[in-house]
Amino acid sequence: MRNVYHRLSFLAIALSAFFMSEALDLPVKTVDGHEVFYYKVGKKETVYGIAKHLGITPEEIVRHNPDAADGIKRGMMLYFPFEEYAAIDSSVGRELAEDTVADADSIYASNDTVIVKDPSIALLLPFGLSSEEPTRGNKLALDFYKGFLLGADTLAERSGTIKILAFDTEAKDTDLSAILARQEVADAAVIVAPNDKDALETIATNAAERGTRVLNVFLVHDSLYLTNPMMLQANIPQRQMYKLAADAFLSDYAGYTPLILRNTTGKNEKEGFVSYLTERMREKGIEPQMIEYDGNLLASSFESLPVSNGERYVVVPSSGTLAEFNKFAYTLKSFRDRLTMVDTEAEDYDPLKPLAKLAVFGYPDWTAFRGDALDMLHKLEAAVYSRFFDDFAGFASRTLENDFKYWYGEGFIESVPSQAILGYDTARFLIKNIRANGGAFDPVFPLVFEGIQSTFEFEKTGEGYCNSTLYILNYRPDGRIDERTI
What we know:
The protein has three domains: 2-19 and 94-235 and 407-469, Rossmann fold (3-Layer(aba) Sandwich), CATH 3.40.50.2300; 28-90, Roll (Membrane-bound Lytic Murein Transglycosylase D, Chain A); 239-386, Rossmann fold (3-Layer(aba) Sandwich), CATH 3.40.50. Residues 1-23 and 87-117 have low confidence and may be disordered. The chain has 14 helices and 19 strands. It is α/β, with parallel strands linked by helices. Helix 1 runs parallel beside helix 5 and helix 5 crosses helix 14.
């Protein structure tokens, strides 16, 4: 474990050599009435290599140049909106000191209301470096840190010095109070807190006294942001999540008949959401139908439903577990197929008559499905609400994991959400924010950050700030996953 960590430290120190390079510097021309930066691809150049050269990420290249997702070739022109990248350049015009990244024995964030000479981000994470047998939590914290460094590396060629400092909250020779007493923590622009409720409360209390922002990206159900003005909750609260999910449901499935699935002998842990959604539907004069079954859902459960006049149904299960999903998914697929079958040779066949439809609306848990269950989500064209979105088979995720393997010799630890990608997104969010604010951290400016897996859009909630973004994911039969944020 120590050897791995020292490798990370070497990378971190190496990053500091790049932070003072010039920002994006490309010629500008007008295309379709808009000014753009442009880059002509040279011989044997790759998306990753160009991204490193320009100081942007591979996904930024693909976002502005979709054809690059299928590969690039010599002579291809890449375009980047002038407004977006010119704004980045102008926002970091202050002279800042030479960048520094901590070594393996120190890991350090700053009062966001003043301009500081050497702005820094403090990561307080349970690396467990002195443990003989590191826990899964220790390993995930390390994966987050690895991803964080890669995120910082993508911005290394932009001007604007920022320290990245970290502390092991499970180190043998120190404790959390000693870490918080260090001046570099007191001077930090923002602290990334660990996945530990007691530690988070201690850090939050200390930060409130010093006026230091604290970002909680791990603990989903913590509510310190309601009473602590320094707290930022990166996970949308459950009640707000339910509201946005219900809003999307009522909008997307207007005119559908809702069917609530409930296993009388199974796990129905989503009944809280189902009850809330039912209440919202009834406010609009919609009465959902309850379909109860014992054990496995049977085709006979749908026999009484009319299907001959283009009826549309949307199914909402009372469970999001894989075990329960497997008890109803295949029956839903069979019913869905029956609805879409048309006998074109039947005497009463009418090509203008609408077909009956079946939609499925499900839960964040489903984003962890792999193999046959994932295939079934696509076959059902299911929709899911979630706090995060990782298209693990998509270009951005695959590119990042390849870079991860290159630097660290191994892939991401499998987790939902991916801690490595969470670290990557968090680094880019914090660094861009601090640079845009002249060395300070501002919870609401810039307003929105869209990462590979997470979107950060904070709003004042209670005394502190809370992320207000929810994803709606639509699984398509061709294997794609369409996403939108609400």
